[in-house]
Design brief:
The chain contains 26 helices and 2 strands. It has 647 residues and is mainly alpha-helical. Helix 2 crosses helix 9, helix 9 runs parallel beside helix 11 and helix 18 runs antiparallel to helix 19. The longest helix is centred in the last third of the chain and has 30 residues.
């Protein structure tokens, strides 16, 4: 025979002998070793949900690849089958959601036996229950705890995966039990036992046979994986609350944003997307009833649906909103791609809105008068186009912010992006305020436009600015107040960053590399060309951008440049004041935004102080921009000397 074939045959025989030495019969496993296998399985599940492949995580275990090898130990076989069933529910939810890819979750199974065939959830739960009854010795208490945890998790995932998500409320009950048991497991976790769990030696080198996905989250130890599990169960609990946020679009949008910010968002958002796909058309009425749009438009949908144009608008609005909200459950790259397509759908919807308002102009006036709404309000005159334009602005803002999160922009583009974002956020803020004003009047609440009393003005005191507390007394007051404050903060941040970048360009303190392949005008058209599909908000053009920069910078006039610096600082201070008034101002996201405003304000203060002190210290300084820690949507400026490398 050939020498290479002989060497290969000997290697196969040696590998088989090594495997036979390493594998042990399941009957020989002690209780602590079975517990170690269960803990190691959970560690590998966390690795899988964080971005690794199945072959590099769950199927490193002998009892996952060869389930029959655990037949001698009923408790281990019951646990492994239940764990594979849980993983099947997760995999199915992500596959049906259609929102994940290699960026954050690898759905390919590579032919591995993930599904537990011919066994229902009830059969698996019965096996777990039987295994718990047999574990009646005092030393079996840790094993019993793991079996209970797996049973509660399996039942919760089965309920979340039911048609129309009818089991969401009951699923939260089992998730709460699983969270308590998980914390008990984390307290008694032994790193050495997990690392040396039986059944993993035969696949010890399997991780090296395939490349690790670049975005897979690295876990330092088993305790970190269990912390991931705790975040995962919290995210599942939040995703199960889809029914509680369907009464208004504003509630639903804010809820989706909150779920998307949870630590392991992919699986939780997959269950949320599945619930929305099944429930929204029937429960909220997009395509079958009138509930949601009637609340949003503040018009009687029964009368709108009497005409053909009204029915066309109703159907198209339901399609656009359902597709867009489900896409919010996707990963960032997919959201960015889909946003461009949805702008085309919303442009069609905007034309239908104009047609309805033209056709029912007199009826709209009568509807506004009947519900006690001020006819001079913009929303009372144009409810369909105003609402559609606000939804378009949301999609456009999300599209531009996702570009920062995906690191698609060069430093040269930052100024134009923040300029356009400031305009879109201003349009959306005005639309939200107009809707709030109309909603108050539509529901019989008084809402005054006065900004201060005459007595205060006579004494020279500033009028009391209108704030979200004016919305007190209606069902959406908390959500609406939060929305207004958050939009004001984001608008001030974008305006401050734009003013800051213009100031730094004027005083020549920031080095902006030229675009390598095209001009600034061409890049402007590439970035914002898709926004021109919709005529509202009115699209901006490149000459407007240049005019705005020229008006702020006034060439190289030092006095005007200082004014731009002062305006930028005021914007950052106002953003911080808005963030501090938010009800959840102590959360990580709000703190991250506050750090963006504080860091950029401090940078401007350092530059102005150096400019006023001496020319030598001023000439030695320069500024560089980098992604803000905690919130990749914004950029933070840092001061350094000319000799120091940028961060």
């Amino acid at each position: 025979m050939e020498p290479l074939m002989d060497a290969g045959a000997r290697r196969i025989q040696d590998a088989a002998a090594e495997r036979k030495r390493e594998e042990r019969a399941a009957q020989e496993l002690r209780t602590d070793e079975i517990c170690a296998i269960c803990d190691r399985w959970m560690v590998e599940e966390a690795q899988w949900m964080a971005g690794h492949t199945l072959a590099q995580s769950i199927f490193l275990c002998q009892f996952a690849c060869q389930p029959s090898s655990a037949d001698g130990t009923p408790a281990l076989r019951a646990y492994c089958d239940a764990a594979r069933a849980c993983d099947t529910f997760v995999h199915r939810a992500v596959m049906e959601g259609g929102m994940a890819g290699d960026e954050d979750f690898i759905v390919e199974t590579f032919g591995l036996p993930l599904e537990v065939k011919e066994q229902t959830t009830q059969h698996l739960l019965a096996k777990l229950e039987a295994a718990q009854k047999k574990a009646n010795r005092p030393e079996d208490a840790p094993l019993k705890l793991r079996l209970r945890f797996r049973a509660n998790l399996l039942e919760a995932l089965d309920l979340l995966a039911q048609p129309k998500s009818t089991g969401c409320e009951e699923a939260r009950h089992f998730l709460g039990k699983a969270k308590q048991q998980l914390r008990s497991l984390a307290e008694e976790l032994d790193e050495d036992n997990v690392k040396n769990a039986p059944g993993y030696a035969m696949h010890a080198k399997a991780r090296l046979t395939a490349p690790i996905p670049p975005r897979a989250a690295p876990f330092k130890d088993a305790k970190t994986c269990f912390a991931f599990w705790d975040d995962f169960l919290v995210a599942l609990e939040e995703a199960s609350r889809v029914h509680q946020h369907g009464s208004s679009l504003l509630h639903l949008q804010r809820w989706l944003q909150r779920v998307a910010r949870t630590s392991p968002p992919v699986v939780a958002m997959a269950f949320a997307a599945g619930a929305m796909r099944l429930d929204l058309p029937d429960k909220l009425g997009w395509n079958t009833t009138k509930g949601l749009l009637e609340t949003e438009l503040l018009v009687p949908m029964d009368q709108v649906l009497e005409t053909e144009k009204g029915r066309e608008f109703f159907d198209e609005a339901g399609k656009c909103l359902t597709d867009h909200l489900v896409s919010c459950c996707s990963n960032r790259a997919r959201q960015h791609r889909l946003s461009r397509r949805y702008l085309e759908d919303f442009s069609v919807l905007l034309n239908l809105a104009l047609a309805v308002e033209t056709d029912r102009k007199e009826d709209i006036k009568a509807w506004s008068k009947a519900c006690g709404m001020n006819p001079d309000l913009a929303w009372a005159q144009r409810p369909f186009t105003s609402w559609t334009a606000s939804q378009i602005a949301r999609v456009q803002i999300m599209l531009l912010f996702k570009g920062f999160e995906l690191d698609l922009y060069s430093t040269k583009e930052y100024c134009m992006i923040f300029w356009y974002l400031e305009y879109l956020l201003r349009c959306l803020l005005n639309a939200v305020k107009a809707w709030g004003e109309a909603y108050l009047q539509n529901n019989g609440f008084e809402s005054s436009d006065k900004t201060g009393s005459k007595a205060n003005k006579k004494k020279g005191k500033p009028g009391a600015a209108r704030n979200p507390s004016n919305f007190h007394g209606h069902p959406l007051r908390e959500t609406l107040a939060y929305e207004v404050l958050e939009l004001q903060a984001l608008h001030a941040l974008c305006q401050g960053l734009f003013q800051m970048m213009v100031y730094l360009e004027v005083v020549k303190k920031v080095t902006v590399p030229e675009l390598p392949y095209n001009s600034e005008r061409e890049r402007f058209e590439q970035r914002f060309g898709c926004l021109h599909l919709c005529q509202s908000p009115i699209p901006l053009v490149y000459p407007q951008f240049l005019d705005t920069k020229a008006a702020i910078g006034k060439g190289s006039d030092p006095a005007t440049a200082s004014n731009a610096c002062m305006v930028a600082q005021q914007c950052f201070q106002y953003a911080r004041s808005c963030l501090q008034r938010l009800p959840d101002s102590s959360t990580g996201e709000v703190k991250a935004l506050d750090r963006v405003a504080a860091s950029n304000s401090l940078t401007l203060m350092v530059l102005e102080r150096a400019r006023n002190q001496s020319s030598d210290s001023w000439d030695a300084l320069c500024v560089s921009f980098h992604a803000s820690p905690g919130d990749a949507r914004f950029r933070t400026a840092s001061v350094r000397t000319q000799q120091q490398p940028p961060q």
